[in-house]
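Input structure tokens:
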């Protein structure tokens, strides 16, 4: 399963969905307090954690020959669901 591109693409889609949910909750707060709080937690945690992952993703992707600009954008957008399969050689450039 972990060597399946479909598995990782599904997780990457989930990451994009979480970004959309978090940003939409920030721009148009949900009426339900639980949903509103959840969307804000997701937004702020992604905003903090994904850039922190750059410390791990840059060396992995540099070794794989992936350009730095692509590494930064994809790590911010997808987090570990991008660079971990690169490390595991599921995604090859």
């Amino acid at each position: 399963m972990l060597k399946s591109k479909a598995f990782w693409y599904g997780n990457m889609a989930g990451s994009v969905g979480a970004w959309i949910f978090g940003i939409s909750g920030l721009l148009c707060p949900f009426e339900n307090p639980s949903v509103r709080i959840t969307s804000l937690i997701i937004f702020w945690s992604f905003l903090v954690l994904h850039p922190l992952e750059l410390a791990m993703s840059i060396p992995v992707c540099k070794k794989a020959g992936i350009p730095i600009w692509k590494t930064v954008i994809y790590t911010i957008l997808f987090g570990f669901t991008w660079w971990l399969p690169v490390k595991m050689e599921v995604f090859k450039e």
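DSSP finds five helices and no strands in the chain. The radius of gyration is 15 Å.
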